[in-house]
Amino acid sequence: MLVKSWMVKKLITIERDCTVVEALSVMKKYSIRHLPVVEDKRLVGLITESDLREVMLPSLVRDIPVDQVMIEDPVTIGPRDSLEEAARIIFKNKIGGLPVVDRGRLIGILTTPDILAAFIDLMGLLQTSSRLDVRLAEKAQAFEEASGIIQKNGGEIISVGLMGKGKQKTHFFRLKRAPLEPIIRSLEKKGHRVISSEE
Q: Which of 25, 102, 114, 167 is the least crowded, having the fewest Cβ atoms under 10 Å away?
């Protein structure tokens, strides 16, 4: 999944000579928490809700331009980078969003909720679905065998997750809604252990 498929393209921006009060007004109007600062469509900074909170009282007394409080060199990402890389950057830097820049020009913004929406979509969590949590038998091609059994018994796999290590490794199969009993019986007959299911 690429950043360009999930970023917000309809941008709300502000210029560097605008005041903090104006920036706050824009953020409230559009219910946003990240406001890119641009000059001729080029990203020159970023204002966040927490930045504004720190200077709210002084800015009510005098007009403070946003370029005095903005993040001057914000962490960015490119449109062809992966969503996984964006998630790593956001987590590592403890930030809530990333301006998307292509050859210096701001073309989008990607926030934590955008990434969450993408992963929810990828995992099929909002679809009517069933789930099987399976510890695979310790043998060659165990995953291929288990997924084949699921499909042969009418299960259509939406997504697969994996957690744990060694004997505690569990595969989470999310399927389009299907009767699970025949699938569970067939899996266990081949030595796979279904530790949890949800129809």
A: 167
By the 8 A CB rule, do 130 and 182 touch? no
Which of 75, 97, 119 is a domain's end point? 119
Q: Which two tokens stand for residue 113?
A: 């909720």
Rounded-to-5 percentages of helix, strand, coil across the chain:
40, 30, 30
Distance, CA of 130 to CA of 127 (rounded, Å): 9
Of 76, 103, 119, the domain-final residue: 119
Quick one: 78 and 146 in the same domain? no
Work out the number of other CB atoms within 10 angstroms of the CB of residue 196: 10
80 within 8 A of 3, measured Cβ to Cβ: yes
CA distance 5 to 83: 9
Beta bridge partners of 133: 172, 196
CA distance 101 to 82: 14
Length in residues, the chain: 199
Residue whose token pair is 């299907």: 178
Whether the Cβ atoms of residue 109 and residue 156 lie closer than 8 Å to each other = no
